[in-house]
Amino acid sequence: MSLEPRGAAHSPLLAAHPTSPGSVFQLLRDGVPRTRADLAAQTGLARSTVSARVDELLGASLIAPFGENSSTGGRPPATFSVNPAARCVVAVDLGGTHARIAVTDLAGEVLAEEELELAIDQGPVPVLDTVSEIARRLLAEAGWSPEKLIGIGIGLPGPVEFATGKPTSPPIMPGWDGFDVPAHLRRTFDVPILVDNDVNAMVLGEHDMVYPDVDHMMFVKTATGVGAGIISDSQLQHGAQGAAGDLGHVAVPDGDQTPCTCGNLGCLEAVASGAAIVARLREQGFDVTGQAEMVELVRSADPAAVRTVRQAGRQVGAVLASCVNLLNPSVIVIGGLVSTAGEHFLAGIRESVYSRSLPLATQHLRIVGTVTSGRAGVLGASAMVTTHTLSAEHINAMLAGSGPAAS
Fold it and tell me: What family name appears in the similarity comment (predicted)?
């Protein structure tokens, strides 16, 4: 998947020159409204150049008047800020058994969304065709024409080669290995399509919406599988093959020998995922068939269910303790369906992490539950798209009529 807008790679006029409208636009992306004089002072550009660039951005509705600054006399100068309603994004969070699809504005505000049961093991074509159908309907419900769509972001529950958008040997996604996800979706939507691991999207969503000032953090999802998204020095870490953060296939230190789908024994996914907890409860005689029933059982304060979930938390924490010593994050966010069972799971994680990690690494460490109400994945998928498509180069391409949603 090319990360350049069509035509941009061969046109020097679209490059991110300091005087380009795209470069001026970047100064407004921090959310602070500015006047033309502010922009001229900040860039060192002539007032006439700044005014021309502001007019171009206004003409494309990419920025909008925000209000007026105070003035010592005469008419107050107008201020401008990014217009979140200029374009929209389709954001998709695919899990092992569920999907959440949303339409957001450029600020990540969800305008329309749908959550449904959707098994990833159906294969890429039926799953992605369902996504396309729902995305078209949500765009219509939100009042957006496809021409205003600036891009699509997708999180998948397995390793992804980010540069191409192709899954790489995903363990719970039969038929997806090497499938060209962007190419398939472009049959319906001719826009940039960014694909990443679902937990990478989640850590971006939680970071952008809740912890924007945190430079080192992790997001751990425990559901059908177990995975982590890692931000270090404010940068999302993919690893050499897109497999960074695959906690699910790290061996738990307690020596559990439960067989894992990967062929090894005692992997975290095999002993502490939502499916593994359900299996443990069934072994104890509970009539539970899925993770949702397991969560309800724990919420009802059944002592055996609480003990089982807390032990799973300890096993997750035992693996995370090594991550804390190695990466030294300041925040670890716990998400996924298992985390909705309450504080018992979190308590088990904290117990192991704080007892097994070095005191220096845990001195200021916070281990907290997600606060994005299941939306971390779509919020991160939306952020992936806006970070890419609102770059200076892409804004220049859009204004030149050669980029997505140029009309």
Answer: Belongs to the ROK (NagC/XylR) family.
